[in-house]
Design goal:
Distance between the termini: 32 Å
Number of strands: 34
Structural class: alpha+beta
Number of helices: 11
Helix content: 10-25%
Strand content: 25-35%
Length: 659
């Protein structure tokens, strides 16, 4: 077969300079290997990029071309600090082309399961004999980008938190240090100085942000005059290196104080720890009971307005109209009960939280996960250096540059809070599987007067629920649903070619199925009528929604990656979708992982890629006063459902037998 030549360019260039960047990918065959060479030229600085890589002869030209484009994209990030996507095009035409893949057998269209009432009544609850699996042939859809948008802003009033400005002509001003180099913190009327703050941690991984503050005093003045009482507040202010990004200005109600013992016969430092949570007036009160008629999306907006919160979402509405009742329960329980029962369709699932900007976030998590991955967002370029005050703070919006919104350990990222200093995977897959199963058959009884008028109508239900996945990825990624089956691959002589030790195969997915009893659902069959005429209390997916939201959110708890950066990065909010480019620099280690790789830096294929920001913690720790890098660190918890293989593989050829 003749080796092809691919012509490549930057996809959707935004500047005139990037339109001129073009190149080629050529191939040569040397013994048992295919060698690919990628060249790019036309950069504004006159530079060129040339990379060579090789694979075994069995690797297709298409796979080699895609890998070469990834390597060229990574090199552009490292050299020019820009995140772009390359595409293959026909130089004789204007439109882009896609390399022809190897032919695969055309699969039969998958059978679609529908849960409807059968003609005959269901007398015995029987779990379905078959399981729902991803469609054999992915559906090509147009790239859609979803984002979290603020619908309306918070109106909560906070305590005054201010410091007197410095009347000086020097570059270093007090307002350019407090809040930037260390957080501005006040309890009652006491403002902490830098030497008194040992550490502060703001945890944004649960429904409400929480705070832990550790301080040290040389005297007992604070204990005597400002010791917190019931309802006292920790006021916090943190700025960023650009005024384009919102500051963190929070009030936390103190929920606990721990003080180390004080000596009576000798003077000693006073060590104290404060614990608190973001204060939302009336959030945990059982007063002001009310009801709301509408969808869960509308009910969440109503709740936010009642408590002065802002509202942010990636959704426009849901399909779950009913009356939502707050009766003798606290507000935080009420809103979480609503989200637990939220429903739009059988692909959507929801989660909510209150963020650092006092917004109630109502998020369709599946939308965020399905958001297109063909373009990288831009972000404000900020530094993680503390001592930039020698030349002024330079936080003005007009002085802010842009950069690619990518986490990476590329050396060029080192002076920014996008640089990964440490990372660690956390796996709880099997524990979660034992807790909620790989799938559930939800058993319930449906009550509605219309059902009794027809003796053949179904009242007992056994509804199968499985996690939702991206059908375009299921045949080429790893799903956390039990370990892969051992396959005996024999050669012509009958000898097993599989190099792995033989292991037992178990029907993992079927082995850990759960059968929860959900109780009685009083379904509304006429939600468009006046509510006084309704024949039930619950929307038609009330019980199923609880399980659907549970199993899908638990799927995202199975395998997470924790990354830490130096500095505070307010470009990134909880719920964002962001790419990670993790580079392995040990040549020997790279060869052990993938013998087909060159001896050099390599992209970690398993841990790189797109993630959902599940949450984060922001921390400041006291250190050397004249430390150059920021004392702020931020740990992001990243998650996803589908995980790529550690080494390049071809997609699984799906058939009607294995779909």
């Amino acid at each position: 077969m003749a080796a092809p030549t691919y012509y490549i360019r930057i996809k959707d260039p935004v500047t005139e300079g990037s339109k001129n960047v073009k190149g080629t990918i050529t191939f040569a065959i040397s013994g048992p290997h295919k060698i690919a060479t990628g060249n790019l030229s036309g950069f504004p600085d006159g530079g060129t990029i040339s990379i060579t890589g090789e694979k075994s002869f069995t690797a297709t030209f298409e796979i080699l071309a895609k890998e070469m484009m990834q390597m060229l994209e990574s090199e552009m990030i490292a050299r020019y600090n820009v995140g772009v996507t390359l595409e293959i095009y026909d130089p004789d035409k204007t439109e882009a082309i896609v390399p022809e893949p190897e032919p695969t057998p055309e699969p039969e269209p998958p059978k679609k399961e529908e849960i409807k009432a059968p003609e005959q009544p269901l007398n015995v609850i029987t779990p379905p004999a078959t399981t729902t699996k991803p469609a054999a042939k992915p559906t090509e859809t147009k790239a859609i980008y979803y984002g979290i948008k603020t619908v309306f802003s918070s109106e909560i009033k906070l305590d005054e938190l201010s410091i007197p400005g410095a009347d000086t002509n020097t570059k270093q001003k007090v307002e350019d240090v407090i809040g930037l180099e260390f957080p501005l913190i006040k309890i009652n009327e006491y403002v902490f100085n830098r030497d008194e703050i040992r550490s502060i941690t703001i945890d944004c991984t649960e429904f409400l942000p929480k705070i832990t503050l550790n301080v040290v005093f040389l005297s007992q003045t604070f204990l005597a005059k400002e010791m917190p009482k019931d309802g006292d507040i920790i006021s916090v202010g943190i700025r960023n290196r650009s005024d384009v990004l919102k500051i963190i200005r929070n009030d936390y109600v103190i929920t606990g104080v721990h003080t180390m013992p004080n000596f009576t016969e000798a003077k000693s430092p006073v060590l104290m720890s404060f614990y608190g949570e973001l204060f939302i007036p009336g959030l945990k009160s059982q007063k002001n009971d009310f009801s709301f008629e509408g969808t869960s999306y509308e009910a969440a907006q109503d709740f936010a307005r009642k408590h002065g919160l802002g509202f942010a979402s990636n959704e426009d509405n849901t399909d779950d109209k009913q009356i939502w009742l707050k009766a003798n329960i606290a507000g935080d329980i009420y809103i979480n009960d609503i989200i637990e029962r939220a429903w739009r369709d059988d692909k959507s699932f929801y989660k909510c939280w209150i963020d650092l900007y006092y917004n109630l976030n109502f998020i369709n998590i599946n939308k965020q996960l399905m958001s297109a991955e063909s373009e990288v967002d831009m972000a404000a370029s900020i530094t993680n250096l503390d001592k930039g005050w020698n030349f002024g703070a330079d936080t003005e919006e007009e002085k802010t540059l842009t950069t690619a919104k990518v986490f990476s350990n590329f050396p060029n990222f080192k002076s920014t809070p996008f640089f990964i200093t440490t990372w660690r995977p956390m796996n709880r897959s099997s524990a979660i599987t034992f807790q909620v199963g790989t799938k559930m058959t939800c058993e319930m009884f449906e009550h509605n007067k219309n059902l009794y008028e027809n003796p053949k109508s179904q009242k007992y239900w056994a509804v199968p629920i499985e996690p939702t996945y991206d059908e375009n990825k299921t045949n080429k990624t790893i799903l956390l649903r039990g370990r892969a089956s051992y396959v005996v691959d024999k050669d012509k002589k009958g000898k097993n070619k599989n190099p792995e030790l033989k292991r037992a195969n178990y029907p993992y997915v079927n082995l850990y199925e759960k059968y929860p009893w959900l109780g009685v659902q009083y379904t509304i069959s006429n939600p468009d009528d006046n509510n006084t005429q309704w024949d039930g209390n619950h929307h038609r997916n009330y019980q199923v929604a609880k399980v659907k939201n549970l199993v899908n959110n638990k799927e995202l708890d199975k395998l997470n990656v924790h990354i830490e950066v130096i500095g505070n990065n307010f470009n990134i909010i909880r719920g964002d979708k962001i790419p990670v480019a993790l580079i392995r620099t040990d040549a020997v280690e790279n060869y052990k992982i993938n013998p087909d790789t060159n001896f050099g830096d390599a992209l970690d294929l398993f841990y790189s890629g797109w993630y959902l920001v599940k949450g984060f913690t922001l921390k400041w720790e006291s250190a050397e006063e004249y430390k150059i890098l920021s004392n702020f660190t931020q740990e992001f918890i990243l998650t996803r459902r589908e995980w790529p293989a550690p080494i390049p593989i071809d997609p699984i050829k799906t058939t009607t037998e294995n779909k």
